[in-house]
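Quick one, tokens below. Sequence please?
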């Protein structure tokens, strides 16, 4: 089962991917985490990526593709995977198609104003990267309760400190949406034309949405 999760910044791709990958017993691959792990482990590809990341530049598609291809060859991907954060562009999607066959693309949708509220309220563990959210959204038939740790400011999983990403502020969020509209949103049309894409609307928190997404996947991937 080879899946891609698409959606605007803050829509919950990481949260859904991490939970659904466990339920489906497939790998969850976040390209952001993948690049950071390559750098942390000092691999040859990681050192190449580091030179771009330290300058604040985007890692070139060719290098990301090489790192991803290596990752997909590992044992935990034998039964399948969920790609979270890749592809971001049409070029990356075309190259991905040369590496492996994708079974389904799930496009996760949520109103922009609610996405901004979610992003501004996001908190991340410094240790394991687990995501929390302090926003309690309940409007227009959409109820997304907060995802709070048992102890304020401390991760339930590893007891490390929770922090707010520097780019989770209104100005940077708007810039990220602009980049998404320009680069990533065309992927929706790209995969829709290939009849590989299914849309799903976020109407509640992960406890509600995870079963809905799993049902959608099982309906369209046999």
């Amino acid at each position: 089962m080879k899946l891609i999760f698409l959606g605007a910044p803050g829509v919950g791709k990481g949260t859904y991917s991490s939970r659904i990958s466990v339920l489906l017993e497939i790998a969850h691959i976040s390209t952001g985490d993948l690049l950071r792990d390559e750098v942390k482990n000092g691999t040859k590809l990681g050192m190449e990526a580091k030179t771009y990341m330290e300058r604040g530049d985007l890692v070139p598609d060719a290098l990301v593709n090489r790192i991803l291809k290596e990752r997909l060859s590992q044992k935990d991907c034998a039964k399948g995977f969920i790609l979270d954060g890749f592809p971001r562009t049409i070029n990356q999607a075309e190259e991905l198609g040369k590496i492996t066959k994708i079974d389904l693309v799930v496009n996760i949708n949520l109103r922009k104003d609610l996405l901004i509220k979610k992003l501004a309220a996001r908190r991340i563990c410094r240790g394991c990267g687990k995501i929390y959210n302090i926003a309690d959204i309940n409007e227009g038939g959409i109820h997304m309760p907060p995802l709070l740790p048992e102890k304020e400011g401390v991760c339930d999983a590893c007891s490390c400190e929770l922090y707010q990403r520097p780019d989770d502020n209104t100005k940077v969020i708007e810039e990220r949406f602009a980049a998404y509209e320009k680069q990533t949103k065309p992927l929706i049309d790209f995969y829709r034309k290939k009849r590989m894409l299914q849309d799903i609307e976020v109407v509640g928190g992960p406890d509600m949405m995870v079963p809905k997404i799993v049902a959608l996947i099982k309906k369209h991937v046999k």
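The longest strand covers residues 2-7. The chain has a mean pLDDT of 90.
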